[in-house]
TrEMBL record, chains A, B:
It comes from the Bacteria. It holds the Pfam family cNMP_binding. It comes from Spirosoma endophyticum. GO terms for molecular function: kinase activity. This is cAMP-binding domain of CRP or a regulatory subunit of cAMP-dependent protein kinases. The lineage of its organism: Bacteria, Pseudomonadati, Bacteroidota, Cytophagia, Cytophagales. Keywords: Kinase, Transferase. The keyword Amino-acid biosynthesis does not apply.
Length: 202, 202
DNA sequence: AGCAACCCTTAAAGAAGGTTAAGAAATACC
DNA sequence: GGTATTTCTTAACCTTCTTTAAGGGTTGCT
């Protein structure tokens, strides 16, 4: 069952006991999402924390020129903390979202609303702690990404991406990876050619 | 007194009552730090959460070529969440730090060790919640920075920095700002010239 | 006050990455 | 299973940013 995947996700942090699993499952809603469907659009308020049980999502922002920039991927079988997706700022402050969250594949998600999450936080510190650790892990990843962005060339960033997220590298189109790395698809194509040249001719 | 600045910092989140202030102050250590002094070096384990009461710090990583890359500034009078500085990964996992944290100005800090912080988390959920919110705020900032890095030119990033952190812009040397933006000091110099040209000649 | 260390700027050459356009290959969907 | 859409690649040209080198200005420290 889908909820088991959520329980298993918490096993990476402070595992939940029977009582806590029960509390959590009562406050979670399962949804099936089609490819290309949005679960959050710009100017909407982000009303849920979303856990990706199956499939894959991307979070992106659109600039003044209409170009999309991928901020995050969240996929099944990805690192535990990266299976959570939301706009945290919009969620807590209840202000309009600046990002979109879109399914890249047909997906199944579990969502928790803000009132339900706050209820869990209030009644059991373990939830507070678990979600703090999830954010902390995501924070570490983001800081690594900032470091990469300010210190490495596009080729280095791409190689690191392949190495760090082999799962994502295979299921995502290169256009989406390019957007995540902050380069054009054309330039990524050039990089890929360079890399394959190096591997044939060492 | 120095500790008052820490209490005031928490007033931005869930303010502490008398009892909680007392608990906190017993678990905090004040230190005076000279300019250029390190409070964390590469391969050391980060043993404290640090609150900047006076002065200014930078967190940076050194690449294989020996070039330094600034990941964070933490200064008095800066945004509340940005007055906390640590390497979260090293702190929780007790693994060697990959970053340095160095005082840019003579400073006064308040530090909490991991055992003390965990004690606070255990005995009062308000601390857990406050530190979760601090991390969440830092998370939002970091995501904005990633977006800037993948979507904007160096000039746009610099202008945003001036706008967003007027306080930091004035107290930091341009070399440090360039390192934070991910460009060379020479190119920042060129950008500054371009900008001043535009303002004289619209 | 004076010297060393740091900081800022300029400029020329070159590398990294973007833009435009167009065709070929793969994939989704009915 | 076939067509429309998306995706990937190539190449020529252009912009952004780095490298190297050098000179002048500030700042910190004792």
């Amino acid at each position: 069952m889908t909820i088991q995947k959520l329980f298993a996700n918490f096993d990476n942090y402070l595992p939940l006991d029977e009582q806590e699993r029960d509390d959590l499952s009562k406050r979670v809603v399962e949804r099936r999402i089609k490819r290309r469907q949005f679960i959050l659009q710009e100017n909407d308020i982000c009303r849920h924390y979303t856990f990706v049980a199956e499939g894959c999502f991307r979070k992106f922002q659109v600039d003044k020129k209409g170009v999309e920039h991928n901020l995050q991927f969240a996929a099944e079988n990805d690192r535990p903390a990266a299976r959570w997706i939301m706009e945290i700022d919009s969620f807590y402050a209840e202000k309009p979202s600046r990002v979109y969250i879109e399914a890249i594949e047909p997906s199944v998600i579990l969502q928790i609303s803000k009132p339900d999450l706050l209820h869990l936080f209030m009644h059991n510190p373990k939830f507070d702690r678990n979600f703090r650790v999830i954010i902390e892990n995501r924070f570490v990843e983001l800081e690594n990404r900032v470091l990469q962005a300010i210190s490495s060339t596009a080729e280095e960033r791409y190689v690191t991406f392949l190495d760090q997220y082999p799962n994502l590298s295979q299921r995502l189109p290169n256009t989406q990876i390019a957007s995540y790395l902050g380069i054009t698809p054309e330039f990524l194509s050039k990089i890929r050619k360079e890399i394959s040249k190096k591997q044939v001719n060492p």
